[in-house]
Amino acid sequence: MPVVPSSIPTSAYLDDAVFEAERKAIFGSSWQLVSHVEKLRSAGDRIVVDVVGQSIIVVRGDDGELRAFHNVCPHRGAALLTEEDCARRITCQYHAWGFDLDGALAHVPHESVLGPVNRGTHRLMACQAEEAHGMVFVNLDPAAPSLATTAPWLEDTIREYAPELPSHTHVHRTQSLVKANWKIGIENFSECYHCTVLHKTFVTGIADPGSYRVVDLGTWHRHEASARDGGDTAYNFDTSATSRADEFRVWWMWPNFAMQSYPGGVLHFWTWHPVSADTTLVTVDWYFERAELEPWQEDLIESHAATTFAEDPPVIESIQRSMSSPAYRPGPILVDPDGGPMSEHAVASIHKLWNESMRAEGEQ
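Given the sequence above, the corresponding structure tokens read:
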């Protein structure tokens, strides 16, 4: 099996300066999943989300459009909102400056006494917000390519695998604060070489490891595997011809988002939120037709949390600790030209994307 050397320096997993550079070069212009549309259905609905350390307001406008703004009042810098709600105006909690849902300054208390304030100069600072078949994404860079341009496959893929997702409701979030750099988590997620060693329930009850393939498509990867047959499955699910009972799929998008379809068409969403150079908040969100779960749905969520989700962090954290050891040297990345189940070519792809992003930032 050909060997590709690691192309990311160890310092990239340890240094605060590199982490800060990543926040600008990578996360400052990438699309980040922030919500399901159920929280933003009506005009005036708004939520407050953290996007790599930036507090962002996402709002449904009177015209039905989604918009995103930095949660910073242009008067004195106070946070405008602290929680999700619904109102036709965004009012600052400090001096009560009011902003329309398109970010325009609409009201300044006592302006007749204090003198006129330039409405054009003091708008809310905008980001981008887009919806992809029920899932809401934000990009901090107002000039970045649209989500539809960046990931033209995304909306159609979600619609194909979860046609009713926009009407679903959020039922559970599995979450873990992992003491490791975000890239280690992404690299781990992008290969199944370790699956037969670490994820016994996954390879015996979810997917056939011998059929596992990762297709490198540049800024996104598609994982494919056959499902375990009938009585060998880890949970019960619809086995009708329309349920996708025979397949396991993953779609990962640079830099830190993935959606995963378990056999039976059970779609759920992963995000890796960088907190610091050595800490990552990993979340998995589940959506179903009703808030009251069926027994098999509860079993699946609990099993996933107790097995696959729980099995990775101890190893990932050990890798992070090893990065500081004098004994550590970046090892080889094993690449199967046929993209077989043991291949780590997707890890090499991530390293390529990281280097391209950081190089582009350095050239500016």
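The longest helix spans residues 345-363. Try to locate this feature in the token string yourself.
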